[in-house]
Amino acid sequence: MSTLSGNAGPYMVPLGRGPLRRTWQGSGLIDVDEIKPKKKKKKKKVKGGGEAQLFTHYAGVTEDSFGGEYGKKRKWIHVTKPALKDNPEIANELWDMLELSYSGMGGHKKIKSASAFEKSGYKIYAIDVDNDPKADAFQVYREHPAGLKGVALGTDGGGEAKAAVKARSVGEYKKKGSVFGEVSGAIAHILLKQNVPTVNNHADVEKVLGKKVEWVGAHPQGKYKDNPGWYKRSIGGGGGSVMKILVGHPKGAKSEALQYGGLVFVEEAANEVDFDGYFVTVNGNPMFIGAKALLMKPKKPKNFKMKKVKKTKKDGTVYYEEKEPDAWVERKTKYKFAKTASMARNYDQIGKTLEREASSGKTDQGTAEATVLLLVHETGMRIGGAHGGPGKSKRRRVEGGAKSDEVVDTFGASTLQKRHVKVSGDTTTIKYIGKSGVEHTKTVKSKTLASSMKAFLGGKDSNDSSESLFSYKDKKTGKQKAISRSQCSRRLKKFNDHYTPKDMRTVRANIVASDVISGINQRKKPAKNLKRKEKIAEAKKLVDEIGEKVAKVLGNTPDVAIGSYVNPALVEFAVKQAGLV
User: Fold this and answer.
1) Which pLDDT score, from 0 to 100, does residue 239 have?
2) What is the mean pLDDT of the chain?
3) CATH for 346-486, among 3.30.420.40, 3.30.1330.40, 3.40.630.30, 3.90.15.10?
4) Which of 25, 43, 204, 390 could form an S-S bond across to 253 if both were Cys, CB 3.0 to 4.6 Å?
């Protein structure tokens, strides 16, 4: 497995951070992050429409002056004790939101009135996200021997307010700094989907909480397999037992999580900002530009139109080909490589999770999904067709000097047949025909993969059958069923909702490209005293070498490998390192 490392520092812009602007002099209400004023960088507009791609805060946050009665709009504000004392209406607003948010649990166990917000040791943060002057969301923490513990949160029920709490909660619990909390229900689901770290050891949980809990361990419904730290204890004014999990980084406990790198994804947002990024490294070379902020999947603007490009055939016939506008292609490309940066930063950890699930020794659906994804992870092969069986492709056949086209069956990881695989010790060899009729041979040395493959081969090292390799017994029908691409894709979304199998293929392509560049740098010294034409020629050779090596792994052409898979920033870096610009 390839080792990836990051030199980028924090994985996202801390939510709520920005130039310090006071509007309540002496009121006791201050910014969440009290920092010295910094010169604000000019933000470049992204071409191609009005939707934003990256955001310095959560969806909808701007740095407009807060205005209104309570300070600053769309900024998390630290509500201090003097502020609550001088402005009792703030406590009433917080109380109204708390009652609404905890009504289904019989109320909050500790906070029983608006006056309780003034309790010593509480740290309160609130935000106003709409047009009225009232607070719309809040979070409450208290000092604890293990750090700063989240004890309450609430909103007015609005979508933007909920988005604000979600974004800040993810950011705070992921940051290392002894911030932690107990969560359950919907908020637990939201945080675990964003891979917030959890404490998964029984003794550590009781040590942090200072009390005994009823230990559950793995989730009873089989959810959140990477978070086996569930327990039950009484919570809420209505009594009863609630299943919870400890999240964040409490002192004296080990928190575990896969880090998602540079991105937190949101579906909607209001403002455009610059695509600001950083490198992660593979073998000491930068590989991806990743986001230091939040990313939104680009949406086509209302006035989107395909452009017509004039083309001429060899016989002189003129025709027009429709293509997407350059600005739109640029936006999609930035999104793609920022998204795969998130995956790249922890590619090995994702692989280890898949290895663990593929090593069950079973031939059930979950093991099949994990083994297919592990294959893609290790080899960069395509996932396979959507319909579940082999695809069809035409390829040119030359026999006795005569050329003819033949139709062949094509395969991917999820549609492999037993005849394609041979296992020898810890080595798995896969021979198959892929997209466009290209013949592939993949060899992987992995004890886990070999063991799982052997199980799906029926306990044999090889099997000449044309049956589907990854088939499992369907629980509903009791019959054997072939795994599908969509099932594997859904399994991958456990790591992040936006991940696709093709992202793993893109990461693998860039790992290969980075290895090639590393090898070139070791055998060649940077060019000196070359003329412009000579530099251009050498740069082309360099890019061609990268493209050829990547294409060999992916099974496509060098032009496609460079144009669609290798990060342009990596190619630019290689050319600069070679002294060709």
Assistant:
1) 55
2) 77
3) 3.90.15.10
4) 204
